[in-house]
Amino acid sequence: MKGAIRPMNAIGAIPGRLRGPTKPRSPLITGAVGYFLPGMILTLSLIGCSRLDTRGESQTAKPARASISYIGAWGMKGPDPGQLDQPTSIAADSIGNSYIADIGNKFIEKFDARGTPLLAFQDPSLTHPQSIAVDRGGAIYVSDPARGSVFIFFPNGDRYRELRLPTRGNAENMLSVAVDDDGLIYVFDTSIGKIFSYTPRFKLVRSWQPFGNSPNSHGREGAIASGSDGYMYLADPEGNKILRIAGDGRVALEIRAAADSAGRKLSAEFVVANKYIFAMDADGRMLQVWTNDGKPVLDADLAPELGQGSRYPPALAVNAHGELLVLDDRESRVLRYKINF
């Protein structure tokens, strides 16, 4: 691979793996891999990172109005480790690192909060990396609709298991994966309109159809996310709403999108973090934010950074430093916004 970093793998050669020198680390691992040995973070050469803008905040008697402020961006386009080709999804862990699944170069990549590459790996069986999630211990979950599977990796990138779903593989399908604080795994399969829930030991607990069992519910676009409040959340672009779902599959709340302009629609790109829901409009520019009980908080236009034209809605994540991360796949970069509420 042109420009790739020559690998030095202390664990053993793995097909498709490109890594730099190892650096020991001993996190407390929970979730699906919580019963096994701690992983190691493998560092790559620095490819570039953005600088953090430090801005003081004046203290006032009244609380500041909810807002987000642009900090900067990081990312470099390319096919090599630490670069982004066709990134599809982004997630963040409990200490502020970011994880990106890239269908273009087939890498699963890890970056620190400033965009410094920490880890990049491939798996020969993972050909269509799509949705990505990280559990509390740093284990990485990546869906592959072509295989109808979710791959689970140790924090160092070694594969732990492939979870095969009771569904047919289809590269055109969407499989959205989420993991809650207890290690329970949720996968939403749009082709059949079903949510599958698994224990941390990969036992299927239940499956259900959140949109009903009518033919129109099959192939209905959507994505799933977990909240720290014990609920699951499901984006329903067709219904222009987000569903708050209890553990028994019951819809506890429907959060409706803003309807302040004609034709305004939600997308399936959203994230739930710190008791807030962040969701992109279908135009790929407008951001809506609610509390997790449905109270509107913010309506923001990201066009100054993303561009004025309509675009595919970018994937979102929120890191432990109170930053909203916006995956700009068109420019192969991650935009950083400070969350001011």
List keywords for this structure.
1% helix; Neuraminidase; 1 helix; four-stranded antiparallel beta sheet; globular
Task: Please describe what this structure looks like.
With 341 residues, the protein is mainly β. The chain has a single domain, classed as TolB, C-terminal domain (Neuraminidase). The protein is built from 1 helix and 26 strands. A 4-stranded antiparallel beta sheet has the order 3-26-25-24, with no helix packed on it. Strands 4-5-6-7 form a 4-stranded antiparallel beta sheet, with no helix packed on it. Strands 8-9-10-11 form a 4-stranded antiparallel beta sheet, with no helix packed on it. Strand 18 (241-245) and strand 19 form a beta hairpin. The radius of gyration is 19 Å and the shape is globular. The N and C termini lie far apart (44 Å).
Write the layout of secondary structure elements.
Elements: E1 22-23, E2 41-42, E3 68-74, E4 87-92, E5 98-102, E6 108-111, E7 117-121, E8 132-134, E9 140-144, E10 149-153, E11 159-164, E12 175-179, E13 185-189, E14 194-198, E15 204-208, E16 223-226, E17 232-236, E18 241-245, E19 251-256, E20 266-273, E21 276-281, E22 286-291, E23 296-301, H1 303-306, E24 315-318, E25 323-328, E26 333-339
